[in-house]
Design brief:
This protein has 414 residues and is α+β, with helices and mostly antiparallel strands. The chain has two domains: 15-61 and 280-412, no CATH class; 66-275, no CATH class. The chain has 13 helices and twelve strands. A hairpin with a 2-residue loop joins strand 8 (184-187) and strand 9 (190-198). Helix 2 runs antiparallel to helix 12 (377-403) and helix 11 (332-369) runs antiparallel to helix 12. The longest helix has 44 residues, at 274-317. The chain is elongated and about 100 Å long. It starts with a helix and ends with a helix.
Amino acid sequence: MGGTVRRGRNWRALLAGAAQRLWRFRLRSVLAIACAALGVAGAITAVNYASGGRAQILEQIRRLGTNLVVVSAEQSRAIAGRERTGDIVTTLVEADYVAIRRELPAVRRTSAMLWQDLRLKAGYLSKVSRVVGVEPDYFPMKAWTLAGGTWFDATDLRRSARVAVIGAKASRDLFNDRSPVGERIFINRIPFEVIGVLGERGPGLDGTDEDGHVFIPLTTAMRRVLNRDYYHALLLELPSPEQVEPAVGGLRELLRVRHRSSAKRPDDFRVQSQSDLVKNQLAAADRLAFLVRWIAASALLVAGLGMLAIAWIGVRDRTREIGTRRALGATAGDIFVQFTAEALALAAIGVAAGVLAGMAASRFAAAAGGVPALFDGPNAALAVSVALLLNLAFASVPAVRAARLDPIVALRTE
């Protein structure tokens, strides 16, 4: 019982003495805390930023859909052995659309698309934006939601109604902060009623920012606005991702027959599935995550080396103090525990400060990079654990050196 009380008193005296010495060498203590804090903050910020970027990609994939196929008209075509560029291909027509829906019964939903950049005007404000003619199924296929108002439907499509659903960015540019639902806009001097506002989503995987687009019924775009009898693209939805690749092959063969493609007459269309784009984006995200882990590990390692350097300098500057303590009866184990406890106390304070700084820096980096602000708890806990272990390992090196000092030699040190 008496031995236990004495050990408790020794530990309390050791901790009190360590606190006094840390306060005595304030500059060195602050530098050690800063090393630990910067390492942890850097690791947490890097990992959180990568996690936010991956979450953004996954959200884009979710709304893009992995079971969608896009048939688009090529923008150039080889004629007489030379490539013509800039010409819009007009061969993707309604007959192709009808044949696709007849020959590929597995297709669940479809929407033809036609677009052009036109001037929009609302009150005294105007801008040039992309106007896209689509069918009502376009929006559920793209997993889009409304921020206000309603969608146009099959009746509006049949009547070629002059109604529009506008993106969030287009709404801000034309109506500022007020709701545009029920308001009138002019598209190429033709009046339209705004019946809905889309929820904001940001750029997609292909870099297109649809928040600035205005969507109108396809028949309205073809007959009342653009006077076109062809499509720019067809969007098709399959029941499952497993059916996408067979459908892509079937679409190519069908359109090659209909468009009389051959070696001398290249395809004037392109059939793309979203799966290739998704795979490329996920591979890029995985590469980024791998690099970020190395950056985080390097930050923690550099911080640990900084702690090692500061602790090593501290042992050298306190050689006479070590000799005095040894002469007064302190054992080598007491010296080792003293220096290790001081380093760990500084590391713990620095790690706690680093977590708080990392949370703030993560929010700032996410806002600057345009990614969701996430806090990756498991990776943050891993960074804290690794930081404490590294600091313990690096702090033990100068602590061992201090414990091995000869008291006589230490007392003679100037």
